[in-house]
Give the backbone structure.
Amino acid sequence: MEKKYINPDTLMTPRGYTHVVTVSGASKMVFVSGQVAVDKAGKLVGPGDLKAQILQAGANLKAALAAAGATPQDIVKTNTYIVNYKQSDYSAMREARAALFPEGDPPASTLVGVSALAVDGLMVEMEAIAAVK
């Protein structure tokens, strides 16, 4: 399986994500549902604390990937939804992404501000697509 990370010269140079990722050859695709800031018991982690919620959602994302035999390095696309997003939230998101993707090429990514998530108190939801050899 070959993953190719493409940042065309005709687009701005991205920081923390890649514009296009292609996957070719034999691979298993893993689709991870949106992960939120709840622990294994279903308790909300970090009420009112976006950074704590992002870190918990990232930890849950890692656990979901591991259950499918994947790692964060296998992720080719992420979608992140933040409640009442404002520009000042971006630094917390970048810090959490750095923990998920410490080195190498970052995946293609979308960040969306939303008015609410499925459960009151949730501030972030992260979903991913991974390609595994």
The two ends are 6 Å apart (CA to CA). The first helix runs from residue 50 to 67. The mean pLDDT is 92. The beta strands are 2-6, 20-24, 28-35, 75-83, 108-114, 124-132.
